[in-house]
């Protein structure tokens, strides 16, 4: 255990002892009836928060987390093609490494690559997903996610009593089955999915076009979890809660790879295994003090096979194995200084992470890293003003010791609280530590990399109003991000190498609107992004739009309730992009629009009920790439039935 962590624990202990005013309290209970209630809870926050609920996912036919995130403003999902391809999420063009993922309040990590593959999370088990852009506003959020520019919160089902089974089948032999059971303290979930993934696409070679299939695309995956939660009421002056989770995931996927002219074969394969156990203990000492302890042990293993075809037709397989283990501990305390109305709060949160990486690559056979995060936060809140400030200390101990302080401030003002209009402003600094791959990956890593440093400024306004049966809300944000010491890969004489590369300047505007009129629900979003390389003038690359960043993009969704069935419609569109800083025709990715439609109906019987859904994705069969040479699926159909037992 590092000396920084020992000192931090002692400081937290003194902080808790200094708070000696206790009064009897009960645990706060939050009951959410619909998506509108969830969104109202985040109207006055000083950071941009967007929510998608499980009900919306079902009505719009969103089968996974990636589909849902495509309807969130300021977020780009990078999809590496194929139904089993990796999917990562990037906030405001800062890269997937700058986006944190929390599963039921505890961070998901990958110290090897720094990117979380969100395709492994099933939407069948989610109560809601929430994307927060900017510094976290929850006083007891783990300190280790504070460096991220955006955080994705995945919240699983939390109903007390439920039993259901969901089955679905669709194009390219895609099937899915899941089951839930929940009884008071214990909740369990199991999910299995399979796809052949051999969807067709058009391969263009000059003036010649041929119809091909995505070969080597089969995927089998299984995941399950057991959740236990308990509230402990007390007749004295405090109450507490305990929640624990055991999670397991395994997948066997073939990787079709990028499109290669005159070569239809692919011989890549990936096995993934991940299991973790996590627990959260929260205690409420009257109206003045609350504290929590988070603990997690995470183990992940993957094995990658890369097959090369020789001239005589033989296939030689190269095997790469990676094992990661992480022990995670977070301690936090929140003190209510002024009153039970939460006018002024002070908190201290300390995280310690122990990470190891083992591989069968001699140059990086074993690496060990400890990281300490300590965040001091202050929050003031009344009817008109919400203000947050934090100071984060980060210490990395590996081959060499690195440490840094990063501040953040944010403010939300409502001049007319009765009109539900809020003006937001925020400024923050953050930096990203190099991953194990950045530092040590075979022939690619660079041991001398510096952390990326980011300055972020945001101005926004949110308003909500109603007139008779019409409810409308609008959100607009303008932002500026500047990244220094950007970590990128550059070609050298014989191989690619990681380097720190100058700076990137990002300006943008996010706009979203939501409306409800009786049985109609409408959601619109538009993004303007200007992200330019300001590093050098090599080969005319200075001030070019950074790769895979469209200047214009947007989304729309519409849900219509009728007496017979519900109709859901979703649209995603994106302007042209380039896959390189060299803006030449061969690197240009054309604009696209993707339409989906869903019909669903709930049927109640005497002893049970079930819902039936019919979905069509990519309604107009558009062919497009999100990542160059990784074509996305065309038109597909799926039928889904869910039984409530």
Give me a quick take on this structure.
With 645 residues, the chain is mainly beta. The protein has a 22-stranded antiparallel barrel. The chain has a 5-stranded mixed beta sheet with strand order 1-6-7-4-5. Strands 2-3 form a two-stranded antiparallel ribbon.
Quaternary organisation of the protein chains: single chain
The amount of helix comes to: under 10%
**Rg to the nearest angstrom?**
25 Å
Helical/strand content category: mainly beta
What layout of secondary structure does this protein have?
Layout: H1 3-17, H2 35-41, E1 48-53, H3 54-59, H4 65-69, E2 75-79, E3 87-91, E4 99-103, E5 106-108, E6 126-133, E7 150-156, E8 161-170, E9 174-183, E10 186-195, E11 200-205, E12 208-213, E13 219-232, E14 238-255, E15 268-285, E16 289-309, E17 315-336, E18 344-359, E19 366-381, E20 385-397, E21 401-413, E22 421-432, H5 436-440, E23 452-467, E24 470-484, E25 487-491, E26 496-500, E27 503-517, E28 520-533, E29 552-561, E30 566-574, E31 577-578, E32 588-589, E33 592-604, E34 609-617, E35 625-627, E36 630-631, E37 636-644
Parallel strand pairs: 4-7
Antiparallel strand pairs: 1-6, 2-3, 4-5, 6-7, 8-9, 8-37, 9-10, 10-13, 11-12, 13-14, 14-15, 15-16, 16-17, 17-18, 18-19, 19-20, 20-21, 21-22, 22-23, 23-24, 24-27, 25-26, 27-28, 28-29, 29-30, 30-33, 31-32, 33-34, 34-37, 35-36
